Amino acid sequence: MASVTQPGTAPRGFRISKRVLPYVLSLPALLVCIGILIPFFSAVLYSFQRYRLSQPWARQFNWGENYLNFFTDPGFWNTLRVSLLYAGTTVILELLLGLGIALLLQRRSTVNNFISIMLLLPLMTAPALAALMWKLMTNPGFGILSYFASLIGLENFRWASSPDTALLTVVLVDIWVYTPFIMILLLAGLRSLPTQPFEAAALDGVPRTFVFFRITLPMLTPYILTATLFRLLDSIQQFDIIYAMTQGGPGDTLTVFQVEAYLNFFQSTNVGRSAALLIILWAITYTLSNVFIKNWLRLRERARGEA
Amino acid sequence: MYEKEKDLIGAFLRGEVDRRGLLKGLGAAGLTAGTAGTLLNMMSTEALAADFDWKAHSGKSVKLLLNKHPYADAMIANLQAFKDLTGMEVTYDVFPEDVYFDKVTAALSSSSTEYDAFMTGAYMTWTYGPAGWITDLNEWIKDASKTNPQYGWDDFLPGVKASCAWNGQPGGALGSEDAKQWCIPWGYEQNNLSYNKEMFDKVGVGVPKNLDELLTTAAKLTKDVGGGVYGIGVRGSRSWATIHPGFLSGYANFGQKDLNVSAEGKLSAAMNTPESKAFHAKWVQMIQESGPKDWSTYTWYQVGTDLGAGASAMIYDADILGYFMNGGDNKMAGKLAYAPFAANPAASAPTPNIWIWSLSMSNFSKDKDATWYFLQWASGLEHAIFGATKMDFVNPVRASVWKDEIFRERLKKSYPGYVEMHDVSAPGAKIHFTAQPLFFDLTTEWAATLQKMVTKEVPVDEGLDKLAESINRQLAEAGLG
């Protein structure tokens, strides 16, 4: 016989008061937050210290000296320049290619679905492995891409070994790995757009370029912004592809933030400088995220007719 | 059973019969190689245990952090002998070299007690020692109650042993009186020439005797061998590892240094002297004319495999790379030869810089005495002989192994010229870097500067002046300059 709880009486067992319940429910999020914040604030703390693992006796607060040194360090400005250039170039090219491919595959068909799945394969490859694969393909002695380059008259093309073409080479690998990410996001966006505006434009005989620039692109902008944000944040923090292919070289050609911070910590054991570099990288990504998210929110509000 | 044979082995272990006599005697007694080996191992263990309580830590366990390397393979192959001798258990993790030192740094910097001992290079101890991550092993080496009287610390090659000892003072001489023994040498590499004799004969060139000849020979080989073969393989990646092999060996042969040490112990860059600039200019020219096309990505791996595959005609790098490429499945196996190399025509002998694979004890080890038992066994004579004669444990760090007839004959037979090369260059072999905590910063920047010179981003003179300026600034910031 089923028991019946009388109105106004609480069930037996462990009870949590209504006042405490919200805190208990948010506890997991709080714990995760603490797990993130402790390393973050540790890094902030280290970045204000003269802290080399190989000179423990010299460890002391030097306050902003690590940051101030960057102003007079040409290596830092090179790192900033290369990181932004790499991130900007890869995101723009991947966006253009991803959008182009997504437009080509927009119509649902068996062939298009198959191709879109196949195009996702590079995204499933670990970037470091992709870099090693490309390193072999671009080997000037036996690489297949070097062979193709020689067929079009580019003899002795040195790919990642030359400061003139090293950036181009790692950008190519990045594009190969990550264009599918943008393609799949934009393809999902394109396929979810309402059909009415396009049908109306077709009835009116509006030219295709006009449709693209005045209807498709504005409606797709939130998706483009989302894809750009994700890729930009990832790209400016690039490590695996560049390190696996060139270790930041030749010379200082590709010493992006993550590579420089990694070398500072693991090779030089210069914790203070490494942490300061990462905090600056965090500040850049934080700023970029804010800009993108604000724009994204504004566009969403506009789409809802709130702005 | 086997009493006569046991007597013979006993005489060998007491030093009354040499290896050749032992083998002859065992052969005459009709013993198969397998039975003889088992008997020898058994009696070696008994002999080791005779004067020392190897069972003092029986039942205990130590854990090792190892790099994937033939030295580690040889140790693992012989590990049962240690377990039988001591009653101890040994576990280990093996990592490929690409990630190995990151793993070591992560384990030590977090004060992890997981590993008791690990493989390292002497350069790394310049970071690990002052950081308080590793133990000064003198405490155990000099303690007669903890070290087997037959250990033979004096048997280690002096230059190699000294290179693992540093007093922790920036610029302090390696192996000084007050030096701490941060690691025990295990195996080491000299940097000399390994070359493809067939290609040399085809082109009709002799072995280069100095840097100028190296340049011309490498250029001729690049031009005349054909098939895309290039003249000389040297490392070029943006790493400290580009500086330490052939480059520093040749550089040191001209009497050049990385750093100056003042009377007050202050350090300053020394690589922008006229002599240094002249050396750099020739080195850069050699790579531009006769090096691999993607030189700036070359680590020891590419340098070695190109030689083994017949893509390069010679290398100026670790001798053991030439050793390994002359065997196994390598296309050029059996076609390689070796030569000691003094870059400076005025120098009387080669001065190879050396890389030493060593064993260190973690300061966070849960049982240091037990760990020392493992370390003294792994660096002991018996294991060294086992590794050198039955595995590929080259180059051994013990003088007595280099005198071992079986070892020498094995090398002479399969690797002609290797022993002679070693013997000629060994007296001048040592670490030619200045021991100091910014070693990896400075050498990485040096490698990056070399890359810029080779790709003509910067002229040699200007590049070295800028490098010296940058190094002096970093030394001053670290309170060393």
TrEMBL record, chain A:
Per its UniProt record, what Pfam families does this chain match?
A: BPD_transp_1
**What positions does the domain ABC transmembrane type-1 occupy?**
80-292
Q: What GO terms describe the biological role, i.e. biological process, of this protein?
A: transmembrane transport
Which keywords are on file for this protein?
Membrane, Transmembrane, Transmembrane helix, Transport
**Primary site of residence:** membrane
GO cellular component annotations of the record: plasma membrane
Return the similarity comment: Belongs to the binding-protein-dependent transport system permease family.
Give the residue spans that cross the bilayer.
Answer: 20-48, 84-105, 117-137, 166-190, 211-233, 275-293
PANTHER family per record: GLUCOSE IMPORT SYSTEM PERMEASE PROTEIN GLCT (PTHR43759:SF1), TREHALOSE TRANSPORT SYSTEM PERMEASE PROTEIN SUGA (PTHR43759)
UniProt-listed InterPro entries: MetI-like, MetI-like_sf, Sugar_ABC_transporter
What is the official name of this protein in its record? ABC transporter permease subunit
From TrEMBL, chain B:
Task: Please report which protein family the annotation says this sequence is part of.
Answer: Belongs to the bacterial solute-binding protein 1 family.
Origin organism is: Rhizobium fredii
Is Transport tagged as a keyword?
A: yes
Would you say which domain of life the source belongs to? Answer: Bacteria
Kindly list the GO CC terms recorded for this protein: periplasmic space
Against PROSITE patterns, the record matches this protein to: TAT
Q: Where in the cell is it found?
A: Periplasm
Q: Which UniProt keywords apply?
A: Periplasm, Signal, Transport
Q: Which coarse location class applies to the principal site listed for this UniProt protein? A: periplasm
Q: Keyword Chloroplast on this protein?
A: no
Question: InterPro entries, alphabetically?
Answer: Bact_solute-bd_prot1, SBP, TAT_signal, TAT_signal_bac_arc
Name the record gives this protein: Extracellular solute-binding protein
